[in-house]
Task: structure prediction
Amino acid sequence: MPKLVEANVSVNLTKNGLLLKFLTLVKNLSIDLYPSMVLHLTDRFVSNRLLYLEIDACYNIRSSLLLSLLKDLPKLRALKIYNTYPKSSVEAQPCLASELSSVPECLSFHLETLQWIDYSGTRGEKEVAVYILKNARCLKTATISLRSMAIENDLMIKELKSMAKASTSCQLITEF
Result:
């Protein structure tokens, strides 16, 4: 069988469970992540090969599920989070990252690049950002692009810059 290196997935995985088997073989994955898909992924999706993950976190996916997914990706080096759909005015539930039993291996040993597009500073987003920055010991670059319509961009930039970072060489870049 030929090697599958990269996959762009925009399907409902709850109806395509066989696809999960093949996704564990890829090194680069771009996926539109709907809330109904996350539970299926976190139960069955473990990939020791995945190095680059691009997630479109559709409709404010609960942040704890994103962190739970990271536990299943021990070699992940680059993470890109974005949202192509407008954020709901209802704030997503906080993830309570402190409840995680252990830091995902990718954060402790491998993650070098974080790119977050359309960051709007919700409580759940802040909690994930704090958790990743605080635990990603190899992080070289964290680029956070603020949602262009956000009124409180200056405050968000101050909050982001004040977050503790596990990696002393991490360069935090904020963009509009």
Remarks:
- The two ends are 44 Å apart (CA to CA).
